[in-house]
Amino acid sequence: MPIAHLTLELRIEGSQSLKDKRQVVRSLKDKIRAKFNVSVAEMEETGLWQRATIGIVSISGSRDYLEGLMQHVEREALRIVNNNGAEVVDSWLDYV
Question: By C-alpha distance, which of 7, 17, 24, 4 is closest to 67?
């Protein structure tokens, strides 16, 4: 059974504190969870206020379904992040 893992590297340019960073990350995580049936977590927590790494995971019996789902998730994440004054600087998708 395939597992899809999408990783997003965020740059939060307007962040002036850890609180600002957490607000952007929490907004992204909550909205993605609410719209899609996926697991979302911040990975590699660092003390850097302008950087965050987000991991999004889903499992299904169909790799084609996962590929489409993750494309939708990535597009929605880009929209959410841009609306919060941040940007996705890198993303990659892996299958297990």
Answer: 4
CA distance 79 to 76: 5
The pTM (predicted TM-score) of the whole model is: 0.90
Closest of 32, 24, 27, 42 to residue 72, by C-alpha: 32
Q: Which residues pair with 94 in a beta bridge?
A: 5
Torsion angle defined by CA atoms of residues 66, 71, 72 and 74, in that order, rounded to the nearest 10 degrees: 120
Per residue of the chain (96 residues), give pLDDT as tens. 899 999 999 999 888 888 989 999 999 999 999 999 899 999 977 778 899 999 999 999 999 999 999 999 999 999 999 998 899 999 999 998
Token pair, residue 68, equals: 């489409």
Check: CB of residue 93 under 8 Å from CB of residue 24.
no
